[in-house]
Amino acid sequence: MVETNDExxxxxxxxxxxxFAAENEYTSHLCVGAAKSLVEENNITIDDVDFVIVxxxxxxxxMPSVSSQVQDKLGLAHAGAxxxxxxxxxxxxxxxxxxxxxxxxxxxxxxxFGAETLTKFTNYExxxxxxxxxxxxxxxxxxxAPKGNILAAVTGSNGDGGKxxxxxxxxxxxxxxxxxxDNKIHQNGRAVFKWAVTTVAEQMQVLSERxxxxxxxxxxxxxxxxxxxxxxxLCNQSGFPIEKTLESISIYGNTSSASIPLALHRGLRxxxxxxxxxxxxxxxxxxxxxxxxxxxxx
Length: 298
Ligand code: COA
Description:
By secondary structure, the chain is an alpha/beta fold. The chain folds into 2 domains: 6-143, Peroxisomal Thiolase, Chain A, domain 1 (3-Layer(aba) Sandwich), CATH 3.40.47; 150-296, Thiolase/Chalcone synthase (Peroxisomal Thiolase, Chain A, domain 1, 3-Layer(aba) Sandwich), CATH 3.40.47. The chain has helices at 6-13, 27-42, 66-73, 90-104, 189-211, 228-238, 249-252, 259-269, and strands at 51-55, 80-84, 109-117, 135-143, 150-157, 165-167, 173-174, 177-178, 185-187, 220-223, 278-285, 289-296. The strands form 4 sheets. It has a 4-stranded mixed β-sheet, with helices on both faces. It has a 4-stranded mixed β-sheet with strand order 5-12-11-10, with helices on both faces. β7 and β8 form a beta hairpin. The mean pLDDT is 96. Coenzyme A is lined by residues 4, 8, 12-13, 88, 127-128, 131, 165, 187, 189-190, 192-193, 226-227, 254, 285.
């Protein structure tokens, strides 16, 4: 479709394979699939889930929400449902919101999804972005526990960078700058790259301080899988070992909000992540926004 080659893609991004949803397959379908895997692989029931959060920037429709479709398809009769829009930081934001609902005592079991069908919103004439994006979904169940397992959280926004990564079909300007309203993803790759490395490296330190855990005590680091070179730069800058980093970029491409749960699932499937492990997850992307948590895996 564009002038490119495998060598360029692998060396600049680390992406080897990606997955495309079928023409008639949307974000809600991927969520239902992820929830079914969660149930089967962990031998649990989700009938008593009382809230569904879907982080996505590629919903089936703007209205109804993806989460309400998922609630219906999964038969979650007693669940509330909202979608959240925080691009690649959406999954980490979802965990923080779920923790809030549970600690407030209003809810007990929250399903948090990160799910995208980015390939439906990709411009296949733009070689700097069309080589990056893939489709996927992942989910976790966050539930009340005697001892809180979410040890620290951080959230932030640099809205002045909104024009550097956007998807618009309505307003023709962002931050006073003209933008293309073709319902496709547009980005200033270099600007996002630079912002991501600086911001996430700083927030790793903030999360470390807030959790009281020096980086040596973190078992797994799961940054959003935007680009393997961003992950390598973060490890170089922070001194965190790359072997203790989990990624989904190499096999799924950049799947925005789905990238962290997909990397986590990969870590679980490969027997790396174990109960009691401390995991630092940081999402970052369109907004520009970021969010991170340190959790003790149960
Ligand atoms: N195939 C071959 N060549 C390509 C290409 C492609 N798919 N895309 C760009 N090029 C060329 C450019 O034209 C340029 O050529 P030139 O030097 O002759 O002008 C050269 O490769 C370098 O382009 P540049 O844009 O500087 O590449 P880069 O190293 O910054 O990599 C990205 C581009 C998009 C992979 C990289 O900037 C990136 O990943 N940024 C972050 C994007 C991101 O993660 N977004 C989502 C955040 S959540």
